[in-house]
Amino acid sequence: MTNIAVTTWSLEQTAPTDLLPAAAPEGDVRIVRSEVPSPEFSRFLYASVGGDIRWTDRLGWSHARWREHLERPGVETWVAYDRGTPAGYVELTPGDDGVVEIEYFGLLPAFRGRRIGGHLLSYGTARAWDLAERWPGLATTKRVWLHTCSKDGEHAMDNYQRRGFRLFDTKVEEEPEVATPGPWPGAFPA
Fold first, then answer.
1. pTM to 2 decimal places
2. What are the residue boundaries of the N-acetyltransferase domain, all occurrences included (predicted)?
3. What is the pLDDT tens value at each position of the chain, 190 positions in all?
């Protein structure tokens, strides 16, 4: 198996005023919180958004592991719908002391390049900043962070920076090159 060099960039916002929202796209695009923890739905989103960019770390998760993660207090999944069809999602995961990670964010391939991503990232980031308002017992958000890497979409870093995220760390590591899993095995060419 061959290895590839993967650059990972970590970005953050340290105040709600850092957020620079994108304009809403034209058409019937709605963003709705998936309030009922659903391992099946979350796995569908994960595999469908990340299948062509080699998201593989959660593919082996059991149903129980998905449920355990989704039922943690403060974990939220916000889904963008274009005319009723899931177009992408953002997953928020609270940490300690008011830190919220945008753990996953992205669009299904057919919905990229249509101005939905900037809008979804803006909306999801705003929900990270007001997460404690929906979850009594969580600390008020003081920092929102995320990471992206050289395997992600070509416009990911630019979108994050246009939304007001600032770079705070860069790492380059060798990783095994894996086949593109697609939303199901063999959906995309390697």
1. 0.93
2. 29-190
3. 799 899 999 999 999 999 999 999 999 999 999 999 999 999 999 999 998 888 888 989 999 999 999 999 999 999 999 999 999 999 999 998 999 999 999 999 999 989 999 999 999 999 999 999 999 999 999 999 999 998 887 889 999 999 999 999 999 999 888 777 777 666 665 5
* Residue 4 token pair: 């590839």
Domains of the chain (ranges; CATH) run: 3-176 (3.40.630.30)
Strand order in the sheet with 3-13: 29-33, 76-82, 85-94, 99-107, 143-149, 3-13, 166-176
Instruction: Kindly state the tokens that stand for 46.
Output: 């994960």
Entry field: residues in the chain: 190
Show the tokens assigned to 39: 């391992």
Give the rounded distance of the alpha carbon of 58 from its chain centre. Answer: 13
DSSP structure string for 32-77: EE--S--HHHHHHHHHHHHTTTT--TTTT--HHHHHHHHTSTT-EE
